[in-house]
Amino acid sequence: MKQLAALIGIILFIYACSPKPYAEANKSYKQQAKFFSKTLLQKPTTDTTDSIKQPAYFVGTTNFNLRKPSYVIIHHTAQNSCNQTLKTFTTVASKVSAHYVICKDGTIHHMLNDYMRAWHAGISRWGNQLDINSASIGIELDNNGFEPFDSLQINSLISLLGRLKKEYGIPTANFIGHGDIAPTRKNDPNWRFPWKTLADKGFGLWYDDVRDTVPENFNDIVALRIIGYDVKDTTAAIRSFKRHFMQDSTKYLNDADRSVLNNLYKKYF
Predict the structure, then answer these.
(1) Which of 86, 99, 212, 252 lies 20 to 30 Å from 63 when distance is taken between CA atoms?
(2) pLDDT-based confidence at residue 11 (cuts at 50, 70, 90)
(3) Active-site residue among 24, 140, 167, 216?
(4) 238 φ, ψ to 5°?
(5) Is 55 exposed, middle or buried (0-12, 13-18, 19+ CB in 10 A)?
(6) What does the DSSP assignment read for the chain?
(7) Closest residue by Cα to residue 244 from 172, 203, 194
């Protein structure tokens, strides 16, 4: 028994001393979280210039909470493995991150507190929202951009989206893709992504099978803008719309596309 106990002790010692994956990155995470915690605890101050009268004492409001995300942005990683993406998101020089990374086997890595601002959207726009990073949760799916999405991965995504929608009250229409908010720069998640499957579960809008006739005065560009697309580059906006809803990335709208666009325009408007 003594020998067994000694052996177990040696094994535990070796395990404790062995390097942990991402130990340095996790240490950095804790340090940054601690820094921002201190910032949140600081009392608000006013400008100290002589021209502004200073109060005699501090008065802190009792009515506040943390800001909640109102969008979920779905990406594909454009890399070749989950480990490669984890390394990218734990490398300071990359300057990119996301709240969640979902591997092909369905494993979910929760990399950042949902209330914190990840760097996943970049220069983007949806409707009048110009700072998507400050209003959203970013989810990266392990996919190089040229392959289907694994069913295990999609099942994990749907489960995660259910929790996020319930916890933060995210509107159904606000589950969108990176390509939707940055049509001139991004095409993720690629056209193989099952948006209809998500919409059937309550994550994102979808069009009806039976649709009204498109009015003669229907304006395609106005409809795209109402849905949320940035239409400064109309070709990019059309391709992004078709990639999401038609699983097609050509740059012209045909009659079927316009029928779907008109139907969605009414849902968003």
Answers:
(1) 99
(2) very low
(3) 140
(4) -65, -45
(5) exposed
(6) -HHHHHHHHHHHHHHHHSPPTTHHHHHHHHHHHHHHHHHHHSPP----STTSPPPSS----S--------EEEEEE--SS-HHHHHHHHT-GGG----SEEE-TTS-EEE-S-TTS--S-S-S--BTTB--GGGGEEEEEE---SSSPPPHHHHHHHHHHHHHHHHHHT--GGGEEEHHHH-TTT--PSPTTS-HHHHHHTTSS----SS-PPPPTT--HHHHHHHHT---SSHHHHHHHHHHHHTS---SS--HHHHHHHHHHHHHH-
(7) 194
Q: What is the pLDDT of residue 5?
A: 45
For the chain, what is the radius of gyration of the CA atoms? 23
Predicted local confidence at residue 10, as pLDDT: 42
Clarify whether 167 is annotated catalytic: no
- The answer to whether 194 touches 148, Cβ cutoff 8 Å, is no
Question: Could you tell me the two tokens for 174?
Answer: 């606000």
Using CA of residue 118, residue 120, residue 126, residue 131, what is the dihedral sign?
A: positive
Tens digit of each residue's pLDDT (9 = 90 or more) over 151-195: 999 999 999 999 999 999 999 999 999 999 999 999 999 999 999
Please give the backbone phi and psi of residue 72, each rounded to the nearest 5 degrees, phi first.
-125, 125
Average pLDDT across the chain, whole number: 90
Distance from chain centroid for Cα 230: 18
Q: Which domains does the chain have, with CATH numbers?
A: 66-206 (3.40.80.10), 207-269 (no CATH)
Q: What is the pTM of this model?
A: 0.89
* Cα 46 from Cα 34, distance rounded (Å): 24
